[in-house]
Amino acid sequence: MKKIVTASLVAAMALTTVNASSLENRLSDLETELADVKKKLKKQNRKINKVKAHDAGDNIKWGVDLRTAMDVINYDLADGTSLKNDDLMSLRLWLNMEYAPDENNVFKGQLSMNKAFGADFTGQRGHSFGSLFDWIGNEALTDNALKVRQAYWLYLGEEFFGAEIPWTFSLGRRPSTGGFLANLREDDVENSPLGHVINVEFDGLSSKIDLSTVTGIQGMSFKVCMGKGSTNARPVLDAAQYATSNVASSDIKDINLGGVIFEPYNDGQFITKASWYRGYNVPDANVGPTGLLTGFSTVGDMEGAAFSILIDGLAEDGFLSDTKIFGSFAWTKSHPNGGTVTFPDGLGGTFDLPGMLGSTESETGTSFWVGAVLPVVEDGVLGLEYNHGSEYWRPFTYAEDTMSGSKLAARGDAYEAYFTYQLTEALSAQIRYTQVDYEYTGSLGFFGSTSGQSQKISDVKAAAAAGNPAAQATLANIVETSTDARFYIRYRF
To answer: So what's the pLDDT on residue 10?
Structure first.
């Protein structure tokens, strides 16, 4: 029996030894195969990472901003009549683009469509100046075509002439609408200019230097801006295409603008900004006695400045912590080319008017603007604003987003209230009411003495009542009060 058990044990040990050797060989083969798989997987991951890096660097990041609005507009005229639109519906689309190939260079762009429901206003009166200058090409209701609203590149520098001072340089079609303070009612991030004096689309450059590291004053910076608002050139296929055009009464010269923006202090809660600019060769619309638009003329230069303050939060916590209040003061000064300017009347004749704003002298205008944004409910804010402009007040705010015209350009008093509510992460709604009581004519005109002439409306009405035929003829073209009630739904993502 012992011999049988011993033989069985020997046989089992031999078999176990054989199986162990076979298992060891199999494990060795599996390890080799696994190492090979890991090697191939690592190589494949390197390829995938290269593709991801390539895609991340080459693809433009897109964003969508779609707003559907309805405006109820009313104008009370000086002759006692009214003009209105009870259901102006509009659709505005912004396609936002951004691309950063490295940490120092950024491209930003925005394509825009802005149209009224069931209408195409392209080429109609009020847009005929588009071929000359495009200050409101994307703000005015036109058609369903996509246009370039913004397209520029931005360089972010870390050293300025060898010193560790951050600075930027940007060139292209700049974001020059919806600037500081004007962005609050629009529920947007502020753009470059001070909204009190500049709110037009513009092509140009800007460069900003951060002075906080040098002065130790938080947020201090200095920015230079310049660009072109119009180019005087012959059209393509002309005898001398793109050469400077002969400046006739219906032409305008190059409109150039230069200015600076200075931030004395900005800690995110207390924000102060100051701006000065000068626009060269600014235009006037030639509107003859018959009311026909007969072209544009260069009338002089316009200078302006503003100082604006925003306090974003009045306390550390509670209701006041999310309350914003602001105030701004601005002035403008006209510099006419000379005395009387001759305009075509549209009927083969001419008529004469003083150089700028109804005066041959350099005239100064002022404006002040105050407001508050209150967090009245969760995810909802109430905004209240008031601004007043004097007799010769004339800013560059033609692209302000109000269907009844720029309230900040008012020579008189403007009142506004709005409630903005965030419905979901991507969807918001706003209801807004704007009223402007005009004291002087020409608030929504240009810089000359046809569309921009400043006359006290009460004096014109008194002259008309006394039987003055010229005053009587103008009453139907003078707006005393305008109102715009708007409701919109807006998708942003």
So the answer is: 45
